[in-house]
């Protein structure tokens, strides 16, 4: 007998499979949450606590779960939150929850409900109402926004290298990816963080480039500002950060094996103070 298959609904109008929709055998789909997992019978003080544990399990399975909508408000706070797989259909939703977009949506049917009922003293419980997925587990956790995070340490390094060197986002990404191979982040995360720090870069016209070069030439070398002057860094640290752009992006990156080496190169012993 052929293995059970579930239709993969192509992108388009959600919930309405088209003719000749591709199928996937059950044993190739991402696994369901085990029925005996503690999430199924535990009480949680906050929804965040529940979501943290749920996505901690999902992280080991190549999955991610997100909030779809909240309802049943008591004293202005929701007591019911509908959850879906992040490869499911987020629409329709009027909830004020984090937007998750993906080009890999499969209209996954997985659904669950988190509730804070009065009989449970408003502690949160989880009920999985549709346990099955219709897609394989992800090969990379970076495919899931919920698992991507720039830690404070990474943010400090991005901020320092952005201000004190001429490194571009892609080069910063290469440096950090080599130094932090197990961290989950993307080039877009770095670009978004830089945009929050410095504003979204605007397109530069040919005239603006020419004007900028003329202004720079008129100032002369004697009036240039030292690298990293807007940071509370020592001269040694500023020099280290300035040379990072040319010394560790390229062949020299082979010597960058871990975050400790990166800290030495950029003088980051005080980066947490930046």
From TrEMBL:
Renumbered to this chain, region (Disordered) spans 1-23, 197-239
Biased region (Polar residues) positions are 214-239
Q: Which InterPro entries match?
A: Zinc_finger_SWIM
Reading the lineage from the top rank, the first entry is: Eukaryota
Q: What is this protein called?
A: FAR1 domain-containing protein
Natural source organism: Thyridium curvatum
The beginning of the lineage is: Eukaryota, Fungi, Dikarya, Ascomycota, Pezizomycotina
